[in-house]
TrEMBL record, chain A:
Heme c binds at C124, C127, H128, M247. One of its GO terms (biological process) is mitochondrial electron transport, ubiquinol to cytochrome c. Its cofactor is heme c. GO terms for cellular component: mitochondrial inner membrane. This is quinol--cytochrome-c reductase. The lineage of its organism: Eukaryota, Fungi, Dikarya, Basidiomycota, Agaricomycotina.
Automatic annotation (TrEMBL), chain B:
Pfam families: UCR_UQCRX_QCR9. It is a single-pass membrane protein. GO terms for cellular component: mitochondrial inner membrane; respiratory chain complex III. It comes from the Eukaryota. It comes from Russula ochroleuca. Component of the ubiquinol-cytochrome c oxidoreductase, a multisubunit transmembrane complex that is part of the mitochondrial electron transport chain which drives oxidative phosphorylation. The complex plays an important role in the uptake of multiple carbon sources present in different host niches. This is Complex III subunit 9. Belongs to the UQCR10/QCR9 family. Component of the ubiquinol-cytochrome c oxidoreductase (cytochrome b-c1 complex, complex III, CIII), a multisubunit enzyme composed of 3 respiratory subunits cytochrome b, cytochrome c1 and Rieske protein, 2 core protein subunits, and additional low-molecular weight protein subunits.
Amino acid sequence: MLQRLPAAALSKAGAFSASRAVSPRVIRLSSARFASSSAASANVLQSLVYSRATLVSATLLATGSIAWYTHLYGTLPFIGEVHASSPAEVGLHPAAYPWSHKGWLDSYDHASIRRGYLVYKEVCAACHSLDRIAWRNLVGVSHTADEVKVLAEEVEYTDGPNDEGEMFQRPGKLSDYLPRPYANDEAARASNQGSLPPDLSLIVKARHGGADYLFSLLTGYVDPPAGVEIREGMNYNPYFPGGAIAMPRLLFDGVVEYDDGTPATTSQMAKDVSTFLSWAAEPEHDERKKIGIKAVILFSTLTALSLYVKRFKWSVIKNRKIVYNPPVDKTH
Amino acid sequence: MALSTAFYNTFFKRNSVYVTSIFAGAFAFGIGFDVAVSNVWDNWNRGKQWKDIRHKYQEADSE
């Protein structure tokens, strides 16, 4: 990173430090200029401004923030760059959508979570696992306990060993985790042109843009622009870094049928499954926000109280008046 | 002054009463605050939480 600084910058830095050596003259000049105004405070200010500690800390601050910026963004600030690639190759930036759980006080829309589960089950679960969600996690969130039991029983789980040492099949229970579509990652790759469909449990937290990205990705399939070649079996999606994604467009109007009568349009399903996966990544979200409200109210009250008590206790000291009575000369 | 005297006599005079009223007060405030915040939360998020839509699916169950 430093070797990319132009040499001129370094020599300028040298010139700067050379000018430090003659700084006493500078101080005198400028103190003369400001002498007409309140000289004492100007001097304090100047000795602060010209002190070695200020120089060192300003240098540290500047190098530190440049280093931090470079680390974060990979380029030096305010220095133009030329790229052989176009910004589209790192993926389009998703728009910020007005999620129903976006605001500080907003809970999830649980009807949407319920619809999103349906979309996950009917569409995404063919390729993507959801390892961190157990059936019981859906109870009281999107389904009743009875409904979830029925859902779980539709799936066969291998359990055991029994008392003869053999594994056996049994219907799912509330404590089972959601089934995986493939036995292992290699099988998943083999069925998807070598690309692994990632586990979706934490995908909203694992991608820049979170739910916005997910929604844009699911609804963003378009024909590749002229000149962009997409290999056989790949699909063009401007929101996916690189543009070529192994997952085809899956959401088309009416792919699922919602039990609450909501029209299953592409964007509706993308919104619902994104909400569902937001919940999967952050199931504590509702409770967290509620506790947050309480904490903000309590702590701001306590802060106000302690500020008041401080002022109250200090008022005596701050308002005292110290009078100096010079000793009276008794000789005459 | 009478009010503050009465206040002093009821709550501060005996340490046993003083400590008990602090504990009881903390308990009551805890519940009250919780109820108040929950009410605001439920009002703000009306129709979005599970308890607002649960009845749709439970009725279907009992049929």
